[in-house]
Amino acid sequence: MPRSGAEARRRLQQAALELYRERGFDQTTTAEIAARAGVNERTFFRHFPDKREVLFDGESDLRAALMQAVAEAPEGLQPLETLLRAFRKVERILEDNRPFAEPRLQVIAATPALRERDLAKAAAITEAVAEALRQRGVTDRLSGLAAQIGWAAFHQAIQAWIDDPSQSLDAHLLHAFDDLRALSATALPAQ
Questions:
Q1: 23 in Cβ contact with 107 (< 8 Å)
Q2: From start to end of the chain, where are the E strands?
């Protein structure tokens, strides 16, 4: 039996991920996850409201950290530079969770209900980041666009980091934002 709540939570996450990969998400029950983790099902529900949330644990921490990093960015930065700075501050959350990240993405990609949940979580984070930019005085139109584009670049960097672990997440993030700058520099003039 796990001795602490944090240990039980970690074991539940690992057990769920293993079972989802072995059997598929839809074929796995919370009782099976709890048994594999060495806890009872009631313990599972003390930590997670449902079997989907096992894969999305930490989303609220990431959202809060991003909002704080945006709020604390130096004055005078353009919105995308503010976001790059914020994403660089929170990348440690993802780096610490790397062994879970790749298999988690594979399970999500293979399960329509999880892809839907992933999109909803991404939309919530994007809206929170847009709100943090608005609180810095960025207009509604620009804050929403910057948040969506910034999140897309961040997501691209994460996928590149999963695909190519020879470089750090930070290197992939810098490259994604360099690509974003190159794309905007070559944009056609408005007609």
A1: no
A2: none
pTM: 0.84
What would the two tokens of residue 169 be? Answer: 């997440």
pLDDT in tens, 127-164: 999 999 999 999 999 999 999 999 999 999 998 998 89
Distance of alpha carbon 39 from alpha carbon 129, whole angstroms: 37
The dihedrals phi and psi of 20, each to the nearest 5 degrees, come to -60, -35
Cα distance between residue 178 and residue 128, in whole Å:
24
Query: What is the rounded CA–CA span in Å between residue 25 and residue 123?
Result: 23
Rounded Cα distance between 87 and 149, Å, is 13
CB distance 66 to 128 below 8 Å:
yes
